[in-house]
Amino acid sequence: MKHLNYILVAAYGLFLFSCSGGNNAKDNREVKQASSEVVSNEAENDDRGYIVKVGDMAPDFTFTTTTGQTLKLSELRGRVVMLQFTASWCVVCRREMPFIEKDIWQKHKDNPNFALYGIDRDEPLDTVKEFAVQTGITYPMALDPGADIFALYADRRAGITRNVIVDREGRIVMLTRLYDEAEFAAMCKKIDELLS
Known about the structure:
By secondary structure, the chain is α/β, with parallel strands linked by helices. The protein is 44% helix and 19% strand. It is built from 6 helices and 7 strands. The chain has a 7-stranded mixed beta sheet with strand order 2-1-5-4-3-6-7, with helices on one face. Helix 1 packs antiparallel against helix 2 (25-44). It starts with a helix and ends with a helix. The model is unreliable at 1-46 (pLDDT under 50).
């Protein structure tokens, strides 16, 4: 990814150079500024777009599920909580969700010390309900109008799918991004450990 960013910056520089004859000091400053923005963005995104980190208290928020229940994250204190940020248009989300259903939800859904909520990014209620049906999941889904909940945890422009595991005290203990089998297995193990 770094190489792609540098190639794009170089192409931008060549474009500016060819359009101006290469004699414009302003264009040279713009190329340098673009290069430094890429390096700066890469440094910020080393954590995969999160604005929170492991060990932080999970930012609190109020959410409404597709069944109309309104909850606050802080009301779930004392439980291990998994937040899955998702959306119907996300291909990787659709790939991951059946594994969350089978390997996490079905295993722990009857445990009063566990809570799992899919937080759907900025989609209407009917779309989210249909999304749950299409993916075959039965765990609770919640709405995130404007992606405001998502923006408490990650850069608003960052992608999904991502999962946040919160311990009983309300601290973030794991952050995942995309669907990686090894990372998913580590997340399942972490949840098991937290519940043991």
